[in-house]
Specification:
- The complex is a heterodimer of chains A (226) and B (247).
- Chain A is mainly alpha-helical and 226 residues long.
- Chain A is 80% helix and 0% strand.
- Chain A has nine helices and no strands.
- The longest helix of chain A has 41 residues.
- Chain A is elongated and about 80 Å long.
- Chain B has a domain of 65 residues.
- The chains are: A mainly alpha (226), B alpha/beta (247).
Chain lengths: 226, 247
């Protein structure tokens, strides 16, 4: 056996790969479910917080800023571990899947709130005034005039941040989530061969590369046409 | 009930923190009157205008427009503002909408028109400002003068009883000023009540019914353009007119 054969047998072992392909595929399904849940709930919660913050109610804003800064400073893995291992002592015992979902959704909420808020505050005061002077209410102005403009500004930072946090689903392997990395590492332990890890890496590329390309497309599509 | 003054502001004071910007201003405007407000920068002209539609909350005083007490907590301010059009120095068009979209937004959301009705009214308003053929352009595709005319269309489409102009031509290149003044002249001829803060003295001279001179948060004097420009009673007015006319 020459070196090349040894290399391929170690990292791209066809037998092992064939055997564990179904596991990796089921891991991909879990990763996709987890990612979609995180993106939808995280962005929705982030936007909701930014809108609440626009109401300019001081104690509420302090609370929002505190929560957002908290989740921006905590490493996502720490949040996952806290919820999964810590929360059961207080009562509820969420599964690894739910812990990972909640943790990353909170982190995405925190970062996206800041991004949405920056977008809202970057819209000139004159836009508010013009709209209010024609009789539109605060919320009509927010939804019809300010947010559509703010969204365009927020798309590049938002897509970057969303991709970065969604990739964090791999952290779920620490709390026994059967997502791609979890499946790949247990397959490696069972087969005494690292080929499943290569499949796992490939699976992430298959999943996220199109997302990265799509993000680039969205960014160029929504770029300012002045 | 016949109403003499369509705008009646009394004893308006406005503080911005320690700054006392308006120090007790009374302004009454008759229906169909064109009142020009002049004065050095920082004299409170724009603030006064913005107190009339409550974009600024006066610290004290009263504002009644078309019989509506603008400062009463019982007044539906969004409803009341439909009667008061406002045009800004920086146009403030919505950059993500076409000219038509800019004009229809309040027609649909505030006046409750259907999309078809709003479109028809908006096209008529754009036609009045000479921009019927620019309905589908976005603000970025329009010149400053055209943008300001769209902004005027956005206001007049709501059929306001009063129009407020806050330095409508100050941000425009000189060659574009004429087209905006032309539209304002047309509005005046149609009988619109207008309060204009501006430095366009030529326009004031031949279009205004009354010129109000403000300085340091107070109305110093007011009267027909001829008397204010040719024969001002106060030293401060004289100094200001002199400065303006040297340019």
């Amino acid at each position: 056996m020459n070196r090349w054969d040894k290399f391929t047998e170690t990292f791209f072992n066809a037998k092992v790969m064939e055997k564990y392909l179904p596991d990796i595929l089921s891991g991909m399904v879990v990763t996709i479910e987890l990612a979609l849940l995180i993106v939808v709930t995280g962005l929705a919660a982030g936007l909701a917080l930014a809108l609440l913050r626009a109401l300019a109610i001081r104690p509420l804003n302090w609370l929002i800023i505190f929560i957002v800064d908290l989740f921006r400073s905590l490493p996502p893995l720490v949040v996952i571990v806290l919820i999964y291992f810590g929360l059961p002592y207080a009562g509820p015992a969420p599964s690894g899947f739910v812990s990972t979902w909640l943790s990353l959704a909170f982190v995405l909420m925190a970062f996206s709130e800041e991004i949405f808020w920056a977008g809202i505050t970057s819209i000139p005061k004159g836009q508010w005034e013009a709209s209010r002077s024609t009789g539109l209410s605060f919320s009509q102005t927010l939804f019809n005039v300010v947010l559509p403009q703010a969204f365009r500004l927020t798309i590049p930072p938002l897509t970057n941040r969303t991709i970065a946090i969604t990739k964090g689903t791999a952290l779920g392997t620490v709390v026994a989530v059967t997502e791609i990395l979890g499946q790949a590492s247990s397959a490696m332990s069972n087969s005494y061969n690292p080929s499943p890890l290569m499949m796992g890496a490939a699976a992430y590329i298959v999943l996220f590369f199109p997302v990265v390309v799509a993000a680039r497309w969205i960014e160029s599509k929504f770029a300012w046409k002045r | 009930m016949t109403q003499k003054h369509i705008v009646e502001a009394r004893g308006i004071h406005k503080h911005f923190g320690a700054l006392h910007v308006l120090k007790g201003v009374d302004l009454k405007v008759d229906e169909r009157e064109l009142v020009f407000v002049i004065g050095p920068s920082g004299s409170g002209k724009s603030t006064l205008l913005r107190c009339l539609n409550r974009l600024e909350e006066p610290s004290s005083g009263s504002v009644v427009v078309d019989g509506i007490d603008m400062l009463s907590p019982k007044t539906d301010i969004n409803h009341a503002r439909q009667r008061i059009g406002m045009v800004f120095q920086s146009f403030n068009l919505y950059p993500h909408m076409t000219a038509l979209g800019n004009v229809t937004l309040a027609l649909r959301k505030v006046a409750g028109k259907s999309r078809a009705e709003a479109d028809a009214l908006a096209r008529a308003a754009l036609d009045r400002v000479g921009l019927a053929d620019r309905a589908d352009h976005t603000p970025g595709q329009l010149s400053g003068g055209q943008q300001q005319r769209v902004a005027i269309a956005r206001s007049i489409a709501l059929e306001p009883r009063v129009m407020l102009f806050d330095e409508p031509t100050s941000a425009l290149d000189p060659e574009l000023v004429g087209s905006v003044l032309e539209v304002m002249r047309g509005l005046r001829e149609s009988g619109m009540t207008m309060i204009v803060v501006s430095h366009e003295m030529g326009f004031a001279r031949n279009a205004a019914d009354r010129v109000v001179f403000m300085d340091d948060g107070l109305i110093v004097e007011q009267g027909p353009p001829a008397s204010i420009f040719e024969n001002p009673a106060h030293e401060r007015t004289r100094a200001f007119i002199g400065q303006i006319q040297r340019h």
